[in-house]
Design a protein that fits this description.
This protein is of the alpha+beta class and 167 residues long. Helices cover 41% and strands 19% of the residues. 28% of the residues are buried. The chain has a 5-stranded mixed sheet with strand order 1-2-3-4-5. It has a single domain (3-166), classed as Lambda Exonuclease, Chain A (Alpha-Beta Complex), CATH 3.90.320.10. The chain has helices at 8-13, 18-25, 35-46, 86-103, 128-143, 153-156, 162-166, and strands spanning 52-57, 60-67, 73-79, 108-113, 118-122. A hairpin with a 5-residue loop joins strand 2 (60-67) and strand 3 (73-79).
């Protein structure tokens, strides 16, 4: 599959939980008013900047794409945490990969962490091997049986499937 055929959220889930990834791949969602989902949507709306564009590329929507006067592009992704998680970094790298595939231009990624007010700059080259592994896992999970629930730190940190898995 081409990079734009993978969803950024699934790339992120591939680093968090196989079961959550499987559910997403099979279009099973629970949005029970989870506070983290609400906060994420709020951050996405509040952080809109003049000059940033929302762009759909295949199965992805890049909410904040800045196109500079020289034609270079910067993907801005906003997360609520205090530190960069591998899942977040890989999601941005995936968007960079999609832009390279479609437009033939390398872009830069910036992860904005609202919890610490820090930013992390992301280069696609640093994550190519990790992306290949994530894409392979996603392909495998499409045809696999639903994985058994396994506890991990994300179960306690706002997963909307916690009742589904453990309730």
């Amino acid at each position: 599959m081409r990079p734009e055929e993978y969803r950024g959220t699934d790339v992120s889930y591939s680093q968090i939980c196989d079961r959550r990834l499987w559910l997403s791949l099979h279009n099973i969602y629970i949005s029970d008013g989870n506070e983290f989902i609400k906060e994420g949507k709020y951050l996405s709306e509040v952080r809109k900047h003049p000059g940033y564009r929302s762009v759909r590329i295949g199965s992805n929507v890049i909410d904040n794409l800045e196109i500079m006067s020289d034609g270079s592009m910067i993907v801005h992704e906003y997360k609520r945490g205090r530190r960069a998680l591998k899942a977040d970094l890989l999601q941005v790298a995936h968007y960079l990969n999609c832009l390279l595939e479609i437009y033939g231009k390398e872009a830069t990624g910036v992860l904005h962490l609202s919890g610490s007010r820090k930013t992390v700059t992301i280069s696609l080259n640093d994550y190519l091997d990790d992306l290949d592994r994530a894409y392979l896992l996603i392909d495998t999970m499409r045809s696999a049986e639903i994985p058994k629930a396994r506890r991990n730190p994300f179960c306690r940190r706002g997963c909307s499937f916690v009742e589904f898995c453990w309730g």
